[in-house]
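Session log. Operator J.P. requested a structure for one protein chain; no other inputs attached. Running the standard single-chain path with token output.
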Amino acid sequence: MTERVARVAALLCLLALVSSCEREPTLTDVNDAGTRIVTLAPHLSELVFDAGAGDMLVGVSAYSDFPPEAASIEIVSDAFTVDQERLRLLAPDIVLAWDSGTPSHVVEELRTAGYRVETIAAGNLADIGAAIRRIGRLTAREAAAEKVAVMFEREMLALREQYSAMTPITAFYQVSLKPLYTINGAHYISEILGICGATNAFAELNELAPAVSVESVVARDPEAIFAGSADGNDAFVEWRRWPHLRANRYENYFLINSDHIGRPTTRLVAATASLCESLQVARENRNAYQQAKGS
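Structure written below.
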């Protein structure tokens, strides 16, 4: 699997899990409380740290690389499978699975094997604070978790109050170019666009991360186009071929930090701030173009 295909799969699933690690399993030191946790998705590892329980993590999924401490924790799974032998050696008290990302048969197999599996939702922005609080309850770190959850919610609310009433602007969020995928209105990235006062060009589609055609994007004529920074400026090559596109005329192409926006964690505050600031630039570019044409 190429790096580009792996990256596409990660964004579509909101998991960066495409291969397993070859490290030999070792027992991790136990925290003071004695609780041992394994997570089956990178964003769940981040949320455990957000909840103040990072010291309880003894096993994580592939690509769990934030915060930096997570990168040194034993890897026990990829996107689709769990290394049962490594899991047995780590003997976790709790396994955290992603309710819409971890395959259901994996969850059932682990429960049948006797593991306590807790599924965590992370489909929208409201889920993030709720997930942090739930992990706090599971780990008896309620106070630390509540503090982080409240801060996340307050910062997102502040961004909403600052930007949501700005002059509307239509945006296209490109998950990947080849194949071409975007997000619908139920996706948390679409929520972020709304916080920033933008309209998602494909909000009405049924699939969370639908495949779309180049022609359909051109027909909807977005005023701004966004892509993850991992793709670099090559992400916009296709759209340069369509000079009449409003995004092209306004020069409204923007890269957003892939690490920040690609996982439903507290780092979405930084992603949202960046996207909102970019949309402010997009509005200014649009106004400048329209004024120049009108003069």
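Operator note: The chain has a mean pLDDT of 89.
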